[in-house]
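new request in #modeling-help
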Amino acid sequence: MTTQVGQFINGQQVAPQDGNLIDIHNPSTGAVCRQVEMASSARVQHAIDTAQAAFPAWRATPPAKRAQVMFRLKQLLEQHSDKICALISEEHGKVLHDAKGELQRGIENVEFACGMPQLLKGEHSKDVGPGIDAWCEFQPLGVVAGITPFNFPAMVPLWMWPSAIMCGNTFVLKPSEKDPSSALFIAELAAEAGLPPGVLNVVNGDKAAVDHLLEDSTIQAVSFVGSTPVAEAIYKKASENGKRCQALGGAKNHAIVMPDADLDNVVNALMGAAYGSCGERCMAISVVLAVGDEVGDALRVRLSQQVETLKVGAGCDNSNDMGPLISEAHYQTVANFIESGVSQEADLVCDGRGLSVEGYENGYFLGATLFDHVKPHMDIYQKEIFGPVLVMLRVPDMQSAVNLINEHEYGNGTCLFTRDGEAARYFIDQVQVGMVGVNVPLPVPVSYHSFGGWKRSLFGDLHAYGPDSVRFYTRRKAVTQRWPSANLREGSQFSFPSHS
Amino acid sequence: MTTQVGQFINGQQVAPQDGNLIDIHNPSTGAVCRQVEMASSARVQHAIDTAQAAFPAWRATPPAKRAQVMFRLKQLLEQHSDKICALISEEHGKVLHDAKGELQRGIENVEFACGMPQLLKGEHSKDVGPGIDAWCEFQPLGVVAGITPFNFPAMVPLWMWPSAIMCGNTFVLKPSEKDPSSALFIAELAAEAGLPPGVLNVVNGDKAAVDHLLEDSTIQAVSFVGSTPVAEAIYKKASENGKRCQALGGAKNHAIVMPDADLDNVVNALMGAAYGSCGERCMAISVVLAVGDEVGDALRVRLSQQVETLKVGAGCDNSNDMGPLISEAHYQTVANFIESGVSQEADLVCDGRGLSVEGYENGYFLGATLFDHVKPHMDIYQKEIFGPVLVMLRVPDMQSAVNLINEHEYGNGTCLFTRDGEAARYFIDQVQVGMVGVNVPLPVPVSYHSFGGWKRSLFGDLHAYGPDSVRFYTRRKAVTQRWPSANLREGSQFSFPSHS
Amino acid sequence: MTTQVGQFINGQQVAPQDGNLIDIHNPSTGAVCRQVEMASSARVQHAIDTAQAAFPAWRATPPAKRAQVMFRLKQLLEQHSDKICALISEEHGKVLHDAKGELQRGIENVEFACGMPQLLKGEHSKDVGPGIDAWCEFQPLGVVAGITPFNFPAMVPLWMWPSAIMCGNTFVLKPSEKDPSSALFIAELAAEAGLPPGVLNVVNGDKAAVDHLLEDSTIQAVSFVGSTPVAEAIYKKASENGKRCQALGGAKNHAIVMPDADLDNVVNALMGAAYGSCGERCMAISVVLAVGDEVGDALRVRLSQQVETLKVGAGCDNSNDMGPLISEAHYQTVANFIESGVSQEADLVCDGRGLSVEGYENGYFLGATLFDHVKPHMDIYQKEIFGPVLVMLRVPDMQSAVNLINEHEYGNGTCLFTRDGEAARYFIDQVQVGMVGVNVPLPVPVSYHSFGGWKRSLFGDLHAYGPDSVRFYTRRKAVTQRWPSANLREGSQFSFPSHS
Amino acid sequence: MTTQVGQFINGQQVAPQDGNLIDIHNPSTGAVCRQVEMASSARVQHAIDTAQAAFPAWRATPPAKRAQVMFRLKQLLEQHSDKICALISEEHGKVLHDAKGELQRGIENVEFACGMPQLLKGEHSKDVGPGIDAWCEFQPLGVVAGITPFNFPAMVPLWMWPSAIMCGNTFVLKPSEKDPSSALFIAELAAEAGLPPGVLNVVNGDKAAVDHLLEDSTIQAVSFVGSTPVAEAIYKKASENGKRCQALGGAKNHAIVMPDADLDNVVNALMGAAYGSCGERCMAISVVLAVGDEVGDALRVRLSQQVETLKVGAGCDNSNDMGPLISEAHYQTVANFIESGVSQEADLVCDGRGLSVEGYENGYFLGATLFDHVKPHMDIYQKEIFGPVLVMLRVPDMQSAVNLINEHEYGNGTCLFTRDGEAARYFIDQVQVGMVGVNVPLPVPVSYHSFGGWKRSLFGDLHAYGPDSVRFYTRRKAVTQRWPSANLREGSQFSFPSHS
C-alpha cells in the first residue's frame, strides 16, 4: 500500500484522516510513490491555533536559548542528509548531487539563524534629550506562514522558518503538495532538536489551504515563493487582509557574454546554470546574450557540443547531470514552448524532445534544448519556461544587452561574463535586477545576505532570508524613557515636544 | 483678492490654471485665507513625468553631494522659521509655539537625512567562497509619492521626502488641501538650497489626485499618514498596483498612571499630551487609565483644575495653550462625540462646548473636555476623536490596563507613569503598541529612530523616517563577483552551488 | 608516575622533552596531580613559526568554512563537558557545578564565533564620487597570542582564540601554568573538529615564555587577562614592541544596596557573587555599600547567617558551594589581608580562617569572610584580595556610594540593587565602571556583547570577546575603486582631491 | 610689527605672554609672517584644566544638541573658506586650490560629525536571559588630545576634534608650530558656532608641550599624525602612561602600472599624486612600479614631458601647480636625498634642484624630480622623502610589484592602475597596505570611512576619523539589567552564571 503523508502539528506527525488524498509521483519513473492528504479547513485552523498557543512561551524564550535548537538542527540535518536528499530526489526528480547542493544551502540558512542573538540587537540611544533615553526592540509578530514551491522542497522552507522562529514567531508551513516529504521530515528533526511543540507546524494542501492561511486573522505575515501570477495574487490578498507579505515570483535570467570573456568558463558555467535541475530554478540562466556574432557563433558551437554529452537520467543516479521535469503536465508545457519557438522562427539548435531514458521510459525526461537567433518578441523569450531551454540572442554591444534586461518583465538574477572592471561596474550599477553576478552564473546570495528580485520577480519591500528576513519577521518597538525626580516640578508643555 | 495657491513642479511654482479652486480657511477666524487649486489629472501626470525625468541624473549624484542640499535646507528652514510657523498656524490653527515644535521636529528629519552617506552603506563580504566576494547596494526606487495629513502640514512631509530623495529617488508630494502652504514654501526653500528641478514636486488635490498617484505605473512607492480607514484603503490599492506602501493610520493612545507616579508631573504631562494642538495629533494621549480609585480621584480633581486655567484662543497669539479645531465640520464631529459620551452615560467632568473666544467668534474653538468613569464599550473610548477630549477609565491594576490597551484596535503610542523599574520593563515588553513611553507622554521617536504604530495604526512592514525609511526608499541589490583566471578550466556544475 | 603535560603545536600534543617541569597541584587535596613542562624558548619559537606557516592558507579559507570548525567544536565541548569540568575542578579547585557554568560561558563564545560571516562584513559605499566606489574589509592580523589566568582556565582562552581564528588569524595560547589541562584538551577537540594544524597552538610557560611572545616580531597582537600590575606591564611591553594589545586586569567590584531593594534577593545574590569560586573572579563582588544603617544592619545579620550554612569543600563534590583557593601561597596572601583588616580595625563579622575540611586537610580551604564597618583607607578596601572576603561599608546615600566607586583604582564591574528606575538610570550614567548591573550581581556581558573594565581594570581601547574582539583581531583595509573609460582624458589634479 | 599668535583656551584667544616666541615663515617668500608663542607648561596645564572643567556639562549635553554646533561650524567654514585657505597657503606654502581641497576634506569630517546621534547608538538586547536585558553605551573618555602635523594644518585637526567632541569629550589640540593659524582660526569659528568655552582648546608648542600632554594624567587619549619615528615614540609614551593612542606615521606609497592601464590617465594621476602639495602628503605617490620595460619607457617619456610643463610658484597664485617646501631645512633634506640617489647610481631623469621662481627668490622651491631605474636598496627608495621626488622601479610582473610593497617598512597607501578585474581583486586582497586604490592614485577614504595605514605607518588598533574614530573616542559600557519581582525568592547561585 502506498505510504500516506499527513500533517505535522504540535510537534508530531498527524496521520491522514480527512480523506482528501492526492498522489505524489516520482518524476523519474512516473509512478506514484506516496499520497499526501490535503488538510481540511479544520486541520489548517488547528495548526494555526496550535501555533498561536505556542507563541507566548516561545516569545519569552531568550534568543540564545532558541538558538540552541538551531545548533542541534544543523547537526541533525547533516546527519540525516542522505535521507533528506533521497526524499527530495524521489519526489522532485533532481539528481542526488543537486539535492545535496540544495540541502547545503538550506543548512546555511540554519547557520545564519544560529546567530540570531546578534542579529536581533536593537539600537540604543543615550540622552536623546536631557535625561531621556530611547531604544528600539525588534519583537516577534506572532504566527506567520510560509508557502513554498516544488522546485526546492527542502531549501525554500529553510529560507523562512528558521529565521522566523528564531525571531520569536511560531510558524505554519505549507510546502508544495508535489514533494512535501523532505519538509515534513525536517520538521520532525526540528522537534528532535528540541523545538517546543507548536512552534513549527506543516500543513499540506492546495489553494484552499492557501486561502485559509491568507484569510485567517491570526496569521500576521506570509512568505511565498512561486510563479509571478500566484505571487502577485497572494501579495494582493495578504495585503488586503492586513498582513505583511513578501511574495517571490518568476524569472527570466539573462547572462551577457562579452567578447573578452573566457569562453571555456562561460560554456561550463552556462551548461550548469541553464540545465541544472532541469532548468526548474528561479535563478537558472534561461537567456544568453552574446555580444557580437563572433561570441554568438562560438557559443553556439560549444554549447551544442556540450549538450550532446549531457547525461540525462533518473535522479537517484549520481552520474547523471540532469533529471526529469516535475510532472507530465509540466513536460507538456515546456514542449509547447519549444514548439512555439519553432513556429515563431527561432533557430532550434538542440531539441530535447523525444528523449527516452532506458529503464525510465515513463519518466518526465526532456533533453537540453538550445535556441539561437531568438528575438525579443518571441514567447520563448518573453515567458518563463522553467525547463531545460536556453535561448540565445545576438546583440551588437553591451548597452543593447543591458537594455533588453531592463525592459524585461522580470528582474530576479543576471550575470555578466567579462574580465573588464569597467564593464562590470557599469553593469552592476545599471541593471534593473536584484541579484547580480559577475562571472558567477547563479548569483544566489549566501545565507548572510538576502535573496530577492526586482520588478515582477518580487512583491514586497523586504527580501528573503539574511538580514532582511530579521526585519520582515519582527515588529519595531520604539521606547522612550525618562525617570522623573520626585521633587521636580515641570510646566505643562502644549507645544509639540522636541527632545533635543 | 484671495491668494491662489497652485502646484510646485520642476523646481518652480505653477500658478493655478485648471480652474478647480477650493477655499483654505483660517480656523481661528473661520475666514478664507487662500484658495488652492486641485490639480487636474494632466497636472499630476506632469509632476510624475517631471520626477521621472529628473531621476537618472539625481540617482547618479553621489550621496555626499546630495546631502549638501540638506545641509543648506536646514539653514534655510531655520532662517525662515517664523514664516513657516505663521503659515502653519494660519491654515491649521495651532498656536505658534506649537508650530515651532512641529517645525523643529521636521528639521531634525532633515538633519538625519544629512547623514545619508553613512546610512546608505551596504554590507561587503570578502571570500563568501574561494575568490568570491559579495556585497549589497541599496539603490533608489525611482519616483515615489507622499500623501500627508493636515495635522502636521510641515513635519510629516519632512518625515518623507528628505529621506526619500537622499536615497536617490525623486518625489511627488500631495499635502493636505486644508493647509498646503507650508509644504509648498518648504519646497521652494529646497530649490533655493540647490535641489535640482524635478527632484521634488508638490501637487495639491483630493481623492482624484491620490487615486492618480496610486494607479500610475511610474510611482514605485507610497508613504501615507492619515486616518486608519484611508490608510487601509491606500495600502490595499497601492499593493494591488504593485507598489510598496507604508500607510500610517489613527490612534487611541492610553496613558497608565500607577499609584507611585508623581502626580504633579503626570497632570502637567497629560494636559499637554491631551490638549496640545487641540488633540489633533496621532500621538496625543486621549485615554488615561487610572490604576486605583485613589489615583483616579486625584487626577480628576487636578485635571479639571488645570482645564479651568487652560488658555484657548487664536493660533497667532503665543500666550494661548490651545487653538481651534481644523474645520467647522470637524468641530461638529467632535461635539457629536461629546454628546454620545453623555448619552452613553460617561461622566462629563469638563465640557468644552459652547466656548467663545472674544474677537474670534467664528473660529472653530472647542474647549478642553474631560470624561471620567468611561467604559470600554463607549464610542468615546472605541473611536479616535481627534479633538481635545480626554477620557479616563478606572482600572484595578496594571494588568487590566495593559489588557485594555492590547485589546484596542489601535496600537500607535502609549505611556506608563511610574517610578518602578519592574513595572516599566513589564509594560515595555508586553504592550502591543509601536511607540512606548515611560514617563514620556508623547513618545515620538527622535529622528534617528523610526516612527510607527502596531495593529491598525500602521499598514506595511517598515516604519516612517529614521533607519527604516532608508530601507523603505531603497531596493536591495545583491552582487556576487568572481574574477576568473585566464587559464583556469572549470568543470560544469549541475548541482546547486554552495559557495563555501 | 605523575602525568606530564607538554605543549600543543601544529595540531598535536608535544610531550615534554625540554626537562623544565613544574608541579600542578589539586587545591582540594594539596597533592601534585600533574606536571607541566615550561616550554623552552625554542619550543615557543616553534609554536610561533608553526602558526605563521599556517596563516596564509587559513586566511584564504572562507569565513563560512572556518565557522564549520566552530560548529563542530561546540558539539564536542558539550559532548566532553564532564571531562573538561573535571580537569578544571581538579586543577583549579572550583566546584564542578561552577566549572560547568564557566564552560557554558566559554561555549557561548564559540557560538558567537559561529556567526563570524555576519560579523566580518565590511561597509560598502557606492558613488563616494562620480563613478567611484569605496568599501572596507576587515582582514586578519597574522599570528596573535593570548595569555590567560588560572581562575577561568577554560573560559578565558575561549574568549580569545575562537574569535581570533575565525577572523582568519592563527594563534598561540599560553594558559596559566597552574591549571593548563582543560585548555590543552580543548585544543585537541578543536583539532578533532577540523581545525587545520598550526592554526591554534598552546605553549606552557612562565614569564620567560610570556616575554618571548611579547618580544617576537611575528606576533601581531596580544590579549591578556590577569592582575593589574601584570596587565600594565604586558600592555607597555607589547606597545613598545609595536603590537596591539588588550590587557585586562584586576577589580574591586562594589554592590550598592538601596533601602528599597528586596533584601532576600540581595543576600542570595551577594553570597554567590562574593564567595562563588572562592572569590577568585575578576567579576566577584568584594565590596558591599549599604545605603543607610538600617540596610547595613540587616545585611550584616542575614549575610552572617548565610555564611554559617555555606558548604565549603572539595571541588569534585557537587554539593559544595565553595572550593579551596588556588594555592598555598595564595591562601597565605588572603589570610594576611584578613589579618590586616583586623589590625586596621575593621569589624570582622565572619572569619574564614582556621577552616578544616574533613578528608581534605591539606586542601587550601578558607571559609567565607565578612567585614563590616570597613573604611576607605583600609587595605582590605583598597586592594584586590581575590579570595572569599566581602567587605561592607556604610554610606549615608547613593551619591556617596557612587563617589566611592568612582574614586577607586579599579572599574571592572558593579551592581546596584534597587527597584527604582531613576536610581538605576543615574547609576548607569554616572558610574565609572565598564560593566554595570542593575539587580544583576555579576554583570558579565553575554557573548554577543563585549567584556571590559574601565580605569586600571583594562589597558587598551577594545574590549574582550563579542563585537569588539572582531575589531581587535582584524585590520581595516579601505579600498577606493574607479574604472576608467578607455577614451576618457582627464586633466591632472594637483589639489587635494575631494570625491564628492 | 609681526603678528603674534598665542593660544586658544576656554573659548577665546590668549595673547602671548610667556615670552617664548618662534617665527612662522611664509615658505613662498622665506619671510617671517607671524610669530607663535610656545606655551609654557603652566599654559598647557591651564588648557587641560579648562577642558576638564568643561567636560561634565558637555558630556551631559544630548548628542543631537552637540551636533547643532557642527551644523553651524560647517556653514562658517564654508563662509570663511577664503580666509582659511589664505592662512594655510601663507604658512604652509601650498597653492590656494590645493588648500581648498584640503579644507573641503576637513569640512567633510565636520559633516560626518553632524551624524553623531546615529553613530553613537549602542546595541540593545532584550532577553539575554529570562527577564534580563543588556545593552551597551558608548560614553566619552574625558579630555583627549590631538597632535597634528604641518602638512595639512586645517584638515588633520578636523579629522580629530569634531569627532572627539561630538562623542562628548573635551579636547586639547596642539597643531604644528610651523603653520598653526588656520587651526586657531577654526577654533574661533567653533566658538562662534556655539561650542561652549573649554570644550576645544588649542595650545602651541614643541616637544615640551607634547610631553606635557603625554604625561598628564587627565588626558585620556592621544591622536597623532606625523612621521613614523615620532609616531612610534608618542605611541610608546602614551601607552606607558596608560592612555589610549592612535599614532599615524610616514609612508612610501607605491603605484603599480600594469601594461593594460590607460597611460594618459596614469600620467595625469601620477603627476598630481606625486607632486601635488610638493609631495608633502602622507598619501602622496612616491614610487611608481612599472610592470615591464615597455610601460617603464613610456612612463619615463611622458612623465618627464609633463614635469617640463609643471608650473611651480607661490602658493597664493592659483595658476601654479605646485608651491614651495615647508622650510629651508626641509629643502636641504630633500636635496640631500636627490644627491644620494645620484651617488647610489639611480637614473636622474628630471632634477628639480636649482629652481628659482621669479619674484620669490627666497622661497623654498624645489622642482619636480624623477628618478628611473631605482633599486630597492637605495635610500631614495627605502626612506620617506616627503618632497616632490618620484622614483620609478622596473619590475617584470605584478607579483614582483606586490612583493616589493609588502616588504617595505610602510603600508599607508597604494594604487594599482589596470583595467583588469582579476588583477584588481588580487591586489586588494594581497597587498599589505591600509588604503588601497584601484585607478585612484590618492585613495584617501571619504569621511564616512576611516583612515589608517598598516605596518609602521600606524601605531594603534583603530584608524582615524569615520566609524573607527567613534570607537576610539568612546568607552564601551555594558549594562545588564533585571528587575526583581517583589515576592520572588531566589536561591543563591554559587556557580558562574550563564544567562541563557
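bot summary: Residues 486-491 of chain D have pLDDT under 50 and may be disordered.
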